[in-house]
UniProtKB/TrEMBL annotation:
GO terms for biological process: methionine biosynthetic process; methylation. Keywords: Methyltransferase, Transferase. NCBIfam families: PRK06520.1 (NF005085). Pfam families: Meth_synt_2 (PF01717). InterPro entries: Met_Synth_C/arc (IPR002629), UROD/MetE-like_sf (IPR038071). Its EC number is 2.1.1.14. Residues 24-373 form the Cobalamin-independent methionine synthase MetE C-terminal/archaeal domain. It comes from Bacillus velezensis (strain DSM 23117 / BGSC 10A6 / LMG 26770 / FZB42) (Bacillus amyloliquefaciens subsp. plantarum). One of its GO terms (molecular function) is zinc ion binding. PANTHER family: METHIONINE SYNTHASE (PTHR43844). This is 5-methyltetrahydropteroyltriglutamate--homocysteine S-methyltransferase.
């Protein structure tokens, strides 16, 4: 190592690997060209190949823009997806898409109707998102390409179990889901992926009274469900390659700048911060719905990175820089500053509709993350 590198602060040296001091969750606003092309494809006006060509062009443009903000990490913005979770899950073996009677209820708004059902043995064989990642990898250049997929818990949380064997034996269901995810993780690794993120809104059920009623409807208890959720993740990522970094993003819902759940991390903090074998956690912390930093006291591992989602993706106004610095300092009272990073609290478009924010504001938000991180960890 050169003399120049050895003189760098320790926290700078530690963040040559993801997650980075300035990071992002993943999804980006769909460009107008992608939205129009998807409509044309649905109407049969263009071919699947023509749609992909347009997506490729816009992803190349987006990756360039991400790098221009100063980020070391790039994603494909999830431009090829309609949903952050359903597109991946419905392409697993044994899972099918269907149209339910209604969409998912958010605060004062509802999504379009979309659902998934488990009708056969769950497995991972051929999956279209492998090619999606390979394209991102091929254009990332000197940036680190990140792949985002829903957590295995989302199949339980959003999937309708129609296969009788799974209805009668949840342990078998969880075993098969973990086995499928092991295959998926290895397949993405073989495609070149070294930074994988699991997105998970299921943890929100522990954080509010409304969520606890959902747990009761599942026919289980909070303690049992916490153990099941933790086992689902830990089993899936067990024995992963040493140079693959796996993080998880915990969210309380993000659709057209609104949300589904609220409440601090307290009720699930011990499991989340001391029970998951992850390399990092992306934590929603952009407003009072997320509670305070006190639950971070359960962090026991010095190698667990916490990415504080202090910059909101739900509106375009830039946060006061000094206020964000003060919040990072407050969090550092519970864990070392060397274990903290900064990002938006969620993506900008968890679904293809996107949040109520402009592309210009989106890029300004990401530059804001980079600028603040550069001043905090200088």
């Amino acid at each position: 190592m050169s003399q120049q590198n050895t003189e760098q602060p320790l926290h700078t040296l530690l963040r040559k690997n993801p997650p980075f001091r300035a990071d992002q969750v993943g999804s980006l606003l769909r460009p107008a060209a992608v939205k129009q092309a998807r409509l044309q494809r649905a109407a049969g006006e263009i071919s699947a190949e023509q749609l992909r060509e347009i997506e490729n062009k816009e992803i190349i443009r987006s990756v360039k823009k991400q790098k221009e903000t100063g980020l070391n990490v790039v994603t494909d913005g999830e431009f090829r997806r309609a949903w952050w979770h359903f597109d991946f899950l419905e392409n697993l073996d044994g899972v099918e898409a269907f149209t339910p009677e209604s969409g998912i209820q958010f605060h004062n708004v509802q999504t379009k109707a979309r659902g998934i059902k488990v009708t056969g043995d769950i497995d991972f064989s051929q999956h279209p998102m492998l090619e999606d990642y390979k394209f991102l990898h091929s254009i990332a250049g000197d940036a680190v390409p990140k792949m985002t997929i829903p957590s295995p818990n989302m199949l339980f949380f959003r999937g309708k179990l129609e296969k009788a064997a799974y209805q009668n034996d949840y342990k078998q269901f969880q075993h098969d889901v973990s086995k499928a995810y092991k295959k998926a993780i290895q397949a993405f690794y073989d495609a070149g992926c070294r930074y994988l993120q699991l997105d998970d809104t299921a943890w929100a059920v522990f954080l509010s009274e409304a969520g606890l009623r959902q747990i009761e409807a599942f026919g289980t208890t909070p303690d049992e469900l916490r153990k099941l959720f933790a086992a689902s993740i830990n089993d899936a990522i067990k024995d992963r390659p040493d140079d693959l970094k796996v993080t998880m993003h915990i969210c309380r819902g993000n659709f057209q700048s609104t949300w589904t759940a609220e409440g601090g991390y307290d009720a699930a903090a011990e499991t989340i911060f001391d029970g998951l074998d992850l390399d990092g956690l992306f934590l929603e912390y952009d407003d009072s719905r997320s509670g305070g930093f006190e639950p971070l006291r359960y962090v026991k591992r010095s190698d667990l990175q916490l990415v504080l989602g202090l910059i909101t993706s739900k509106h375009g106004e830039l946060e006061d820089k000094d206020a964000i610095k003060r919040r990072i300092e407050e969090a550092s009272q519970y864990v070392s500053l060397d274990q903290l990073c900064l990002s938006p609290q969620c993506g900008f478009a968890s679904t293809e509709e996107g949040n109520l924010i402009t592309e210009e504001q989106q890029w300004a938000k990401l530059r804001h993350v980079v600028n603040i991180a550069g001043e905090v960890w200088k």
